[in-house]
Amino acid sequence: MGKILIQGGTVVSATGRSAADVLIDGETIAGVLAPGQAETFGVTAASDVRIIDATGKYVVPGGVDVHTHMELPFGGTFASDTFETGTVAAAWGGVTTIVDFAVQRTGESVQDGLADWHAKAAGNCAIDYGFHQIIGGVDADSLKAMTYLVDNEGVTSFKLFMAYPGVFYSDDGQILRAMQNAGESGAMIMMHAENGIAIDVLVAQALARGETDPKYHAFTRPAALEGEATNRAIQLARVAGNVPLYVVHMSASEALAEVAEARHRGQNVFAETCPQYLYLSIEDQLARPGFEGAKWVCSTPLRSKHEHHHRDLWKGLRMNELAVVSTDHCPFCMKDQKELGLGDFSKIPNGIGSVEHRMELLYQGVVNGEITLERWVETCSTTPARIFGLYPTKGVTAPGADADVLIWDPDGHTSIGLKKKHHMNMDHSAWEGFEVDGKVDTVLSRGSIVVEDDTFTGTKGHGRYVKRGLSSYLV
Ligand code: URP
Ligand code: ZN
Ligand code: ZN
User: Fold this and answer.
1) What is the residue with the minimal CA distance to atom 2 of ligand 1?
2) Residue from 162, 248, 330, 354 whose mutation best tests the ligand 1 pocket (most atoms within 8 A of CB)
3) Strand (E) positions, 214-290?
4) Could you identify the atom of ligand 1 that is nearest to the CA of residue 351?
């Protein structure tokens, strides 16, 4: 592997931007150089350094998507992207690292669950990947396994569910135990914060009234029950000893307010949102006539556009109440998958596919004046890397970091959708017809060019498993 010089671009980080050239040697970044300095490093017209012209473009660290579900078993089927199709799609979208969720359910061994995920991913990924561990059955064995995974497997974060009783659900006592355990090892608890017990009552009542369309998915998961569960998770983490808590896929203003208050108190609480909660709504998507709304059934659900959740979430991103934007990429086709819920919304597999579109959808937030260019980099790359123990190998353009680079064309334009030939393994797009400013120009994963000239040039198997450390946000 030789050297590459990305020349003439504007290097953008979480803290600023400057005209600079990026020198890559093999898999890592060798230097971020003032324009014209490359010769000092032996780069001349005659040298065998490949030059990439980035004039007029932004050079940013590759995207880090810390919430994906490739091949997740859910609702009687499997998420439709494999690690191969999902990571190729991610690369197309400027993402160079994903962190996916290995699964353990009640009665199963955590180590077996993790081994299953390694078997699915190994040799199949186009970009680097790590794992969180879902703990669906908190008991003495799984608690012991959590510590083992932190110490030995590079798995330093664990997702618990206050939703989905009978599937992944943990009660408050189990959550407290898992949090206490995480407190000892320094691990992060990730929380699906919705009151699943109350939701199940509302779902049964809705179905009994004959309310079976997809939109009832949202009406039976009210924002108040996301806010309540978020508050309960925060209080449990507090009682457990200020254990680090990361609230996933936040959609409701009520939940955001709880996180903001906890952060102001100084509690180690972080939260993410996803593009669907910033742009999509019950009225414009989920409540479409017939069964079409099934495309947008996900949990937490889309919210009403009349209740200012969108506005509050964008503000939360600006204020650092929301630290990260991930996708919660969990794709299901309409045919044979979402269709499982025809006539009963509660049987529609939950999830939206977006791994390919996060960078472009959030860049539109820059264009619209919602966030700065630097905040785009921070929420989509640097902070996820820092919170989940990938930094400074990932999430930064600096000497010694992996040469994961996205060259972004601010003058380009992106048309999103299946009709525009997206690369996710889905028979529809939740984003069909979205037109956004800016465009992925070139993507490098550990020094290898994986997307260039509108062509995927990477390879299955290039992506490596990344053992993660503890969060670098905590003292
Ligand atoms: O609808 C969603 N979010 N599906 C994936 C599973 C989860 O809860 O993250
Ligand atoms: Zn979840
Ligand atoms: Zn998820």
Assistant:
1) 351
2) 330
3) 245-247, 269-273
4) 1
Task: Identify which of 299, 300, 347 to mutate to test ligand 1's pocket (most ligand atoms within 8 A of the CB).
Answer: 299
Residue keyed to tokens 């990026």 = 22
Alpha-carbon span 121 to 445, nearest angstrom: 17
CATH architecture assigned to 62-354: Alpha-Beta Barrel (3.20)
Nearest residue (CA) to ligand 1, atom 7: 299
Q: Which two tokens stand for residue 114?
A: 């993790």
Query: How confident is the model over 237-292, as pLDDT tens digits?
Result: 999 999 999 999 999 999 999 999 999 999 999 999 999 999 999 999 999 999 99
Ligand with an atom nearest the CA of residue 66: 3
Quick one: residue 201, left, alpha or beta (phi over 0 = left, psi -120 to 50 = alpha)?
Answer: alpha
Helix (H), strand (E) at residue 456: strand 455-456
Q: List, chain by chain if needed, residues with CB within 6 Å of any ligand 1 atom.
A: 69, 192, 249, 298-299, 328, 330, 350-351
Q: What is the DSSP string of 23-69?
A: EEETTEEEEEE-TTGGGGGT--TTSSPEEEE-TT-EEEEPEEEEEE-
Cα torsion at 376, 319, 370, 295 (round to 10°)? 80
Which atom in ligand 1 lies closest to the alpha carbon of residue 350? Answer: 1
Domain coordinates of the chain in residue numbers? 62-354
Model confidence pLDDT, tens digit, residues 133-143: 999 999 999 99
C-alpha–C-alpha distance, residues 212 and 206, integer Å:
7
Q: Output the six-digit token pair for 233.
A: 């998770």
Residue 231 half-sphere exposure toward CB, CA atoms < 13 A: 12
In our burial notation (b when 16+ CB lie closer than 10 A, e otherwise), range 349-384 reads bbbbbbbbbbbbbbbbbbeeebbebbbbbbbbbbbb
**Is the whole model's pTM more than 0.85, yes or no?**
yes
Enumerate residues 6+ apart whose C-beta is below 8 A from 29: 22, 23, 397, 398, 399, 400, 401, 402, 403, 405
3 state DSSP class of 104: strand
